[in-house]
Design a protein that fits this description.
This protein is mostly helical. The chain has 16 helices and no strands. Helix 1 runs antiparallel to helix 5 and helix 6 runs antiparallel to helix 15. This is MFS transporter. One of its GO terms (molecular function) is transmembrane transporter activity.
């Protein structure tokens, strides 16, 4: 858990959560609109969706330390190369392409694969603790990156971020990355195995079979709208707050507080997923996101935004671990990388439109208010899909397509 915590902390913090910090400086330096800069995340979403099935297959077949090292190199060199860009198209290539390869190679697929392999009875808690690193990265790294940008300038700041990522992750990968407990004579949940170590069962699901299951589509319609809401709010929040007259550092503290409660929610909702009805726990996460958006619309003061941050943070924090738990619960750990790799392209359209749509509405209306209002409809879609999803006590077997 500790290893996947750090890996996701660095990758998600520097690539995803800090993008809101990058938005204004890059738009000013490259002399373009926020909408044009936000298209970088759409390109990133397309790249992630296109390569995710291949990355998932490689993680199922190739030595995990090699894959993680390659991903770290892509992330580190991509971030450092950001210091050299002069045109918007270069931003799309470097960040939307190269950095995206590092992101997909270091976050959901390898982290959840390791946790699905290593944990069974306490899988929800394990995924919650691991993904605590995702949310806490916003609480820690958004203020740090903001300070680096203000102190060193954005070009030097990108070099520092990329170098730090490589120096921290590569040694950890070669010290701690072990794909399955059977490789070191253990069983899931850390118990000693009475049998000799053996290789895991072969993956039973194909990409095409996954696309033919109703469960995968319903999970997509639950998680996708939540991801859209998270991206729309978190990544526009620094600009939204500063447009209201709140200082840059205070705006970063709103994002940080959102992330702190998102981190807490990952552990709390992960524990609840081990003990309560899984659909009820997912519904709770969606409800808190809706309430957070409503509070954000009703409160435009710094103090009011802090209250909204607490509520929205608790809702958004559960989305990532609950997504992984739903997939592992429905399909089993042997098929997990294939199913997750298939599901990521299905989620791509939500990430593709999230921030660009939000900033397009801003460009048209001069405010983020209508963009936030529209999120309510997406959350209604997620609730309807959740109501239709049959949560299973045993993983779905190959051939059960309905």
């Amino acid at each position: 858990m500790g290893f996947t915590f750090v890996m996701q902390f660095i990758a998600m913090g520097l690539v995803y959560y800090s993008f809101g910090v990058y938005l204004k400086p890059l738009a000013e330096a490259l002399e373009t609109s926020r909408f044009s800069i936000s298209l970088t995340l759409s390109i990133e979403a397309i790249v992630v969706a296109c390569v995710a099935p291949m990355i998932a297959r490689l993680y199922a077949e190739v030595q995990i330390r090699r894959m993680l090292t390659l991903g770290t190199c892509a992330l580190a060199f991509g971030l450092m190369s950001m210091s050299l860009i002069q045109e918007t198209w270069q931003l799309y290539v470097v960040f939307g392409g190269g950095v995206a390869l590092g992101l997909v190679s270091l976050t959901a697929i390898p982290s959840n694969l390791l946790l699905a392999n290593w944990f069974d009875r306490r899988r929800g808690l394990a995924m919650g603790i691991s993904q605590f690193g995702i949310s806490i990265s916003a609480a820690v790294l958004v203020p740090v990156v903001t300070w680096l940008f203000l102190t060193l300038g954005w070009r030097t700041a990108f070099v520092v971020c990329g170098a730090a990522a490589g120096l921290v992750l590569v040694p950890m990968i070669w010290l701690f990355a072990v794909k399955t407990p059977e490789e070191v004579g253990l069983s899931p949940d850390g118990t000693f195995s009475a049998k000799a170590p053996k290789a895991p069962e072969p993956v039973t699901w194909t990409f095409r079979q996954a696309l033919a299951t109703r469960d995968v589509w319903l999970i997509t319609l639950i998680v996708g709208p939540c991801n859209l809401g998270i991206a729309s709010v978190l990544l526009s929040l620094p600009a939204y707050a500063t447009d209201l007259g709140i200082s840059e550092m205070r705006a970063s503290s709103v994002v940080a507080l959102t992330a702190v409660f998102g981190a807490i929610a990952k552990i709390v909702l992960g524990m609840l997923a081990d003990r309560l009805n899984l659909k009820l726990v997912v519904a709770l996460a969606v409800l808190f996101q809706v309430l957070g958006v409503v509070l954000l619309l009703l409160n435009t003061s710094y103090e009011g935004m802090l209250v909204a941050a607490v509520v929205f943070g608790f809702g958004y924090g559960g989305t990532a671990p609950l997504w992984a738990i739903l997939l592992a619960n429905q399909f089993g750990r042997e098929s997990f990388p294939t199913i997750m790799g298939a599901n990521m392209p299905m989620l791509m359209p939500f990430g593709l439109i999230a921030l660009p749509l939000t900033n397009w509405i801003f460009e048209v209306q001069g405010s983020y208010h209508s963009a936030y209002v529209s999120l309510i409809g997406w959350y209604v879609l997620a609730a309807l899909a959740l109501a239709l999803l049959p949560v299973r006590n045993q993983p779905r077997q190959q051939g059960q397509l309905a």
